[in-house]
Amino acid sequence: MSSGRRARRALTVLGAGAALLWLALPLFPIAGWILAERWSHPALVPQEWGVRGWREAASAGLGPALGRSLILALAVTALATPLGAAIGWVLGWRLTRHPGPVIGILLLPVLLPPVAVALGFDAVLVRTGLPEPVAVLALLTAAALPYVALTTAVAFARTPPILAEQARALGAGPMQAALRALLPALRRSLLVAALLAFLVAWSDYVITVLVGGGRLVTAPVLLGSLAAGSGNTATVAVIALTALAPPLLLLGAVAALTRGPRPTTERSSP
């Protein structure tokens, strides 16, 4: 290995380590607060240790809030992934002559401020009488669609349509051709797209509060309400770190499932 290549690798490792440290730095005091009974300035470590934050988080409804967040995120993932993949199929294989308007409409939930989208949808909700949980589910699905559609569009663009055509020529039906020929080539991108949809729903606060009317208490909603008060630092730290666990576990699972050589049926990037 040449000295230049070793230097580049060392710089890459140092840069990645510095970036990870920068991202993890705010978590250090939070990690200290989850076992702190009392921690006042200017002490560098808690003066008293305990599990008060865990008790208060449990009494505040952390368990049910996490359950609602999980159900909502899984429902959004189940809806947004196939819908977004269908749009990605149209865009990736250029099945429409005018992809620009499709992409523009697709990006509207991202380009518009979430508060404006939530308030506008809330006005429609009042007139239609749609239940708040259903409205939150619909709006979060729309918010996740751009990420799923654009991720899968890139995957479809790299996957030649001839794979499905060859499977059909060998006697496979449309569903068999999709499952046996296309799905293995698209598996990685579909997993990443599903992860993005899950993260959009799991981390949402604005839409759930405004459209849900404060009655759909998810983990971010509970965290925001307690963080707005004073004297709740230990409880807020417990909720914040607990809410990090499902996304991190899912991220690790997706990373493990997508590890390995790229399928030969997928076109390599230029």
Task: Describe the structure concisely.
With 270 residues, the chain is mostly helical.
Give the integer mean of the pLDDT values.
Answer: 85
Using the coordinates shown, work out and report the CATH topology: MetI-like fold
Question: How widely separated are the two ends?
Answer: 26 Å
Largest sheet: 2 strands, antiparallel
Trace the largest sheet across and list its strands: 1-2
Look at the structure and give the CATH class.
Mainly Alpha
Order of helices and strands: HHEEHHHHHHHHHH
CATH architecture: Orthogonal Bundle
Number of domains: 1
Q: Look at the helices and sheets and give the structural class.
A: mainly alpha
CATH homologous superfamily classification: MetI-like
- Assess the beta-strand content as a share of residues: under 5%
Q: Into which percent range does the helicity of residues fall?
A: over 70%
Q: Can you characterise this structure?
A:
By secondary structure, the protein is mostly helical. The chain has one domain: MetI-like (MetI-like fold). It has 12 helices and 2 strands. A two-stranded antiparallel ribbon has the order 1-2. Helix 4 packs across helix 9 and helix 9 packs antiparallel against helix 12. The relative contact order is 0.14.
